[in-house]
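Hi W., the nicotinamide-adenine-dinucleotide complex you wanted:
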Amino acid sequence: MRVGVIGTGYVGLVAGAGFADFGNDVVCIDIDEHRIARLCRGDVPIHEPGLPELVAANSAAGRLRFSTHFADATQDADVILLCVGTPPSADGRADLSQVYAAAEAVGRTLSSEFTVLVNKSTVPVGTAERVRDIIASVTDKAFAVVSNPEFLKEGSALDDFLRPDRVIVGVGPAAGPVDRAASLSTPELLDERARVVMRQLYSAVVRKNDRLLFMDARSAELTKYASNAYLAMRISFMNDVARLCEQIGSDVELVRRGMGMDQRIGPSFLFPGVGYGGSCFPKDTRALLHIAEDAGLTLPLVDATEAINLRQKRRLFDKLLVHFGVRDDQPGALVGKVIAVWGLAFKPETDDVREAPALTLIEKLVNLGATVRAYDPVATETARQSLQSLLAERMRQVELVSGAYDAVRAADALCLCTEWRQLRQPDFRKIARLMRGNVLLDGRNIWDPAQVRAMGLRYEGIGRR
Ligand SMILES: NC(=O)c1ccc[n+]([C@@H]2O[C@H](COP(=O)([O-])OP(=O)(O)OC[C@H]3O[C@@H](n4cnc5c(N)ncnc54)[C@H](O)[C@@H]3O)[C@@H](O)[C@H]2O)c1
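Structure:
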């Protein structure tokens, strides 16, 4: 099949390289010229395990190409995947400007007798209809718009692509203006053709296990938001339980394991920590609240999920204040303190720092006058850019170092924000020797408290006894 991919971020690049690897002819385009220039040189601009190898192999085989011209992706395409960003706008609603701009540009350059436009971006209910109207206003070619929300997890995106739990395809409303001469091109027929194309597109992915679920576009769009909000809710629930544990002397790690063994509950997404971040959960829960509000409803569980998360993102900061015996309404209360931060990415195996809890912590520390020395195995550069725009001249108080132990040198406290594999079993003896103070805050409950305390350090996790 000939596949066009619009947007080469985490979703577009993984889908483009993945479908090329199945033998399809794929052209990925992006309006970011710098990004496309890098990809043309074989330089993958995001950190995703296995992706550089997949991009290199398929580029070399001539099945995967990159361009800044929409026509290169739409020319004779069977399928076009819209994978552009839907960041939060100022009020928390999804900003759909990238989706609409891409839809219009695609529509203007459609050339096939029939094309399926696949929306993989996370978009509010009704967007497929709006995209259909936009394209219909600029082309007289036949097309169908389907909603195919993406469920990949950064850090294991290729695996998720190859072995998805499910592939959701929302078909209908279907058609754009059709060749009036072709009397058989009714909207229903175009829908049917879109279903066939989507089944063919995903045939290699669902070969072993047919997890292709067809539904209408509005249900598909909501499935994505409801899934993310539910997972976020499990995390916030456990963060609330962890807070209760600290108050009443229970240990959340035992509670979590005990809960997770129940097959009705399962162990995933029950890990308490420093709050969820990233480019999906925070923005999607907020967008879902707005979808409900626009429909005249409230979603109290989702509301609480978001509120708990905001509180949790300042949890390590609050613990530090207690350790140092200061309050956050005392300007300069942390002047002279050096705080080491391990982990900047919102989760391991990615360089994505969007809404990462570590950035919230660093901003709060810097505002109270602390010096921060931070380390991350891969996210240093993305963090530098985000922190620079967040902190401006206060960036002087932040040093991003290239070694984990460089961060703890002469530090008064060490805060762990991301559970990178390489930070799971550090040399606590060395940490104790290098630090000036002795406070270790384990924001992901990955360290053994006894082992830490044996080195004369003070350990505190999240909800642990
Ligand atoms: N990142 C994830 O883990 C993930 C998972 C599931 C779903 N999603 C959803 O998928 C969508 C894309 O996410 P992402 O993380 O890949 O985004 P991203 O910000 O990493 O990438 C988006 C890309 O689209 C490009 N772009 C913007 N406007 C364009 C236009 N008009 N034409 C062509 N290219 C354009 C940008 O330059 C950028 O390279 C979002 O809606 C997101 O919510 C993301």
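The mean pLDDT is 95.

W.
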